[in-house]
Specification:
The chain has about 270 residues and is α/β, with parallel strands linked by helices. The chain has two domains: about 5-210, Spore Coat Polysaccharide Biosynthesis Protein SpsA, Chain A; about 215-270. Helix content is about 45%, strand content about 20%. It is built from eleven helices and nine strands. Strands 1, 2, 3, 4, 5, 6, 7, 8 and 9 form a nine-stranded mixed beta sheet that branches. A hairpin with an 8-residue loop joins β6 and β7 (about 135-140). The chain is globular and about 50 Å long.
Length: about 270
């Protein structure tokens, strides 16, 4: 199998216990990555530095740290991270989520089967506090043609599950600054650039949602950033004005409804 880099970004508000659980899930993979690229997006807490230092001392050949002097946001952090990955195949991972033990094995196998494949994601299982108690799922299309159509209205990839080729990401312009929509903007440009897509019809990552995530998905500030991001996607020519208005209208109601109601919408309507 091809050599693999894992790309992660950490910023000051993340919890050490979540990051530790994430790291342990990566160490427990049936096929190990050759490199973890950890982008430290601005100064971190003393506890977080202690945790990363410990893992680095235990696995010095595995961990590559990229330290940014100030918080740049996810898009810029991942852009720099991609550029610092040593391997052609890169797996994205959010540091508060947990990878299923066979995640890397299953995705790398797909790249071996199809040398033309550029990006491979999967379904996700979502949990609040206990990863063994699944509260919802996010199901995305599997086949390339279905992914292309679905992406015009909703993200056809669960970002924290994707594994992609570095050259395909760079050829499409890499991650760019597009708050809340860094991945959406990248998928559109990759698809328009001819990238071949696939999703594995299994939940290879357990994703932490919880009350804080639901809260972050609401309010005027979130709505303005979301609509701005969708407008950037539209400007690529990938989506129509109808797509933009339709998506933004739905998000208007979801973002401005009470958090309790938004949680129900996420878990019961937008997800399954």
């Amino acid at each position: 199998m091809a050599q693999l880099s894992v790309l992660m970004s950490i910023y000051i508000n993340e919890k050490t216990e979540y990051v530790q659980a994430c790291f342990e899930s990566l160490l427990g993979q049936t096929v190990q990555a050759d490199e973890w690229v950890i982008v430290e997006d601005g100064p971190l807490t003393a506890e977080m530095y202690k945790l990363i230092n410990r893992f680095q001392m235990e696995h010095p050949e595995l961990i590559k740290r990229v330290k940014l002097n100030s918080n740049q946001g996810l898009g810029i952090a991942l852009r720099i991270g991609v550029e610092n990955c040593s391997n052609e195949i890169i797996a994205r991972m959010d540091t508060d989520d947990i990878a299923r033990q066979d995640r890397f094995e299953k995705q790398l196998k797909e790249f071996d089967i199809d040398p033309e494949l550029d990006i491979c994601g999967s379904q996700i299982d979502e949990f609040d506090d206990d990863p063994d108690i699944i509260v919802s799922k996010r199901i995305v299309p599997i086949k390339h043609e279905d992914i292309i159509e679905y992406q015009k209205l909703r993200d056809a990839f669960n970002h924290m599950t994707v594994m992609y080729k570095k050259k395909a990401v760079l050829s499409a312009g890499n991650y760019q600054k597009c708050p809340l929509m860094e991945d959406t903007y990248l998928w559109a440009r990759m698809i328009m650039n001819g990238s071949k897509c696939l999703n594995i019809d299994e939940a290879l990552v357990h994703v932490r949602i919880g009350k804080e995530m639901i809260k972050r998905r609401g309010g005027w500030d979130y709505l303005k950033k979301y609509c701005y991001g969708q407008k950037m996607v539209h400007k690529t020519g990938y989506t129509s004005w109808f797509n933009y208005i339709y998506i933004s209208s739905i998000q208007f109601f979801v973002a401005l409804m009470p958090s309790g109601m938004r949680a129900i919408v996420f878990k019961k309507l937008l997800h399954k």
